[in-house]
C-alpha cells in the first residue's frame, strides 16, 4: 500500500545487506519505524511482542525466521529447536505452523550446501504468494460488495473488527482487501472500525490504513456494533481469521463472536476473509479444539497513547491489585458465518466446501 507516496509492505528481504526488515507495528500510527531481524531471538521477539502481527504476516515472518535460524546454524537439530521456539511464540494463528511445516516439507531431503538458499527462496516466494492471495481475496470480496451496491445504490456501510488489513499480511490484507478493491471501483463506502481492546488494533492500525487510502471511516468502541446493526447502519461485516476449522468455525480476535451474534440477530451478512493458509484441515470443531492465546494482563490494565506533550506513554486504568485475564481470541461457530471469502472463491462455511479448497 502507498503511505506518504511510498509503496510499503510489512516485511521484506534486502538482498544487498542480507537483512530481513519489518515495520514495528507497536509504534503505529504515531511513528513508522523499520526494524531489522538479525537473529532467531529477534524474530521470536517480533512475533511474541507484536512488532508484526496478523495471522498471514506471522506466517511469513516465521518463514524468514527459519532462514535466519539456518544462517546461524544449519544443523537439523538446531532447526527443529528453532521451529519449536517460533511455533510457541503465538499459539492461535495456524499460519505460523503452516509456514514452518511447509519449509520443513521442502528441505527434508536436501544437503547442507543447498539448505540456506532454498529456505530463503521459499520464504521470498511465500511472501509473494501472500500478496497474490490477498489480492485475489480482494477481487472475490469485491463481487459481494458490488452486488449489494447494485441493490442499495448508496453508501455501503461495513463493520470490521481488529486489523485484517495490509498490516496483518504482506500487502492488501484479507478483510480490508475487498474494501480497497471497492474503493478503486468507485463504490461509495463507509467503514465502522471497532476499537478492539485490549491492544486497539482497530483504532491504531485499521483507521490509519483507511485514512491513508482516503476511505471514510468512523471509530467506535467495542460494544457499539450491535446498536448500529439494530438501526440499519451496517450493511455487512467482514473480519479476518487466525484459524478456521474444517467445519467452518472461525477463530479471530476476541469480540468477533459477539459481533457475529448481533449480525445474525439483525440478519446482516457476516463474511470472513480467509486465506487457505489460515484453514486448519486437521481440526473439526473450532470451539473445542483451537488453542486460545492468553496474553499478559498488562495489556488489559494499561492503555497506551500519545500524551499532551506528544510522547507515547502508558497509563494504568484499573484499581491496584485488580485481577485481569486477557484472552486474545474467540471462536465464532460456522452457523453465524454467511460465507468465507478465500483466494479460490467464495465458499460456504461447511466441511464439504472447505475440503474442496485443499
Ligand atoms: O492479535 P493480532 O493483532 O495478531 O490479531 C489479528 C487478527 O485477529 C486478525 O483479524 C487475523 O489475524 C486475520 S489477519 C488478516
How would you characterize this protein structure?
The chain is of the alpha/beta class. The chain has two domains: 2-129, Four Helix Bundle (Hemerythrin (Met), subunit A) (Up-down Bundle), CATH 1.20.120; 138-355, Rossmann fold (3-Layer(aba) Sandwich). The protein has helices spanning 40-48, 55-72, 76-89, 95-107, 112-152, 177-184, 201-212, 225-230, 256-265, 286-289, 298-301, 351-355; strands spanning 2-3, 6-7, 11-14, 19-23, 34-37, 156-160, 189-194, 217-220, 236-239, 243-245, 250-253, 270-273, 279-280, 302-306, 312-316, 329-332, 339-342, 345-347. β10 (243-245) and β11 (250-253) form a beta hairpin. α1 (40-48) runs antiparallel to α2 and α5 packs across α6. The longest helix has 41 residues, at 112-152. The protein is globular. It starts with a strand and ends with a helix. The site of 5-S-methyl-1-O-phosphono-5-thio-D-ribulose (MRU) has 19 residues, from α2 and β11.
Amino acid at each position: 500500500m502507498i503511505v506518504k507516496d511510498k509503496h510499503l509492505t510489512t516485511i521484506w528481504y534486502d538482498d544487498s545487506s542480507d537483512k530481513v526488515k519489518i515495520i514495528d507495528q507497536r509504534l503505529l500510527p504515531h511513528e513508522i519505524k523499520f526494524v531489522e531481524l538479525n537473529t532467531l531471538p529477534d524474530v521470536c521477539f517480533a512475533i511474541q511482542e507484536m512488532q508484526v502481527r496478523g495471522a498471514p504476516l506471522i506466517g511469513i515472518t516465521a518463514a524468514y525466521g527459519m532462514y535466519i535460524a539456518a544462517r546461524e546454524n544449519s544443523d537439523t537439530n538446531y532447526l527443529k529447536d528453532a521451529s519449536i521456539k517460533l511455533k510457541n511464540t503465538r499459539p492461535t494463528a495456524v499460519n505460523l505452523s503452516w509456514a514452518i511445516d511447509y519449509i520443513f516439507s521442502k528441505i527434508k531431503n536436501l544437503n547442507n550446501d543447498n539448505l540456506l538458499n532454498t529456505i530463503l527462496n521459499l520464504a521470498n516466494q511465500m511472501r509473494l504468494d501472500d500478496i497474490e492471495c490477498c489480492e485475489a481475496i480482494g477481487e472475490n470480496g469485491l463481487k459481494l460488495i458490488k452486488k449489494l451496491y447494485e441493490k442499495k445504490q448508496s453508501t455501503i456501510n461495513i463493520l470490521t473488527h481488529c486489523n485484517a488489513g495490509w498490516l496483518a499480511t504482506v500487502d492488501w490484507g484479507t478483510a480490508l482487501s475487498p474494501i480497497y478493491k471497492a474503493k478503486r471501483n468507485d463504490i461509495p463506502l463507509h467503514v465502522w472500525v471497532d476499537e478492539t481492546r485490549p491492544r486497539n488494533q482497530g483504532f491504531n492500525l485499521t483507521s490509519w490504513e483507511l485514512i491513508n487510502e482516503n476511505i471514510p471511516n468512523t471509530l467506535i468502541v467495542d460494544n457499539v456494533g450491535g446498536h448500529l446493526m439494530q438501526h440499519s447502519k451496517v450493511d455487512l461485516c467482514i473480519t479476518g481469521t487466525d484459524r478456521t476449522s474444517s467445519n467452518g468455525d472461525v477463530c479471530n480476535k476476541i469480540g468477533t463472536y459477539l459481533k457475529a451474534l448481533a449480525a445474525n440477530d439483525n440478519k446482516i451478512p457476516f463474511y470472513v476473509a480467509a486465506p487457505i493458509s489460515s484453514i486448519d484441515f486437521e481440526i473439526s470443531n473450532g470451539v473445542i479444539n483451537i488453542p486460545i492465546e492468553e496474553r499478559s494482563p498488562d495489556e488489559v490494565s494499561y492503555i497506551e497513547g500519545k500524551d499532551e506533550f506528544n510522547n507515547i506513554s502508558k497509563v494504568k486504568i484499573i484499581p491496584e491489585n485488580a485481577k485481569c485475564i486477557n484472552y486474545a481470541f474467540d471462536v465464532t461457530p460456522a452457523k453465524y458465518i454467511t460465507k468465507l471469502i478465500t483466494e479460490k472463491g467464495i465458499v460456504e462455511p461447511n466441511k464439504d466446501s472447505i475440503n474442496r479448497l485443499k
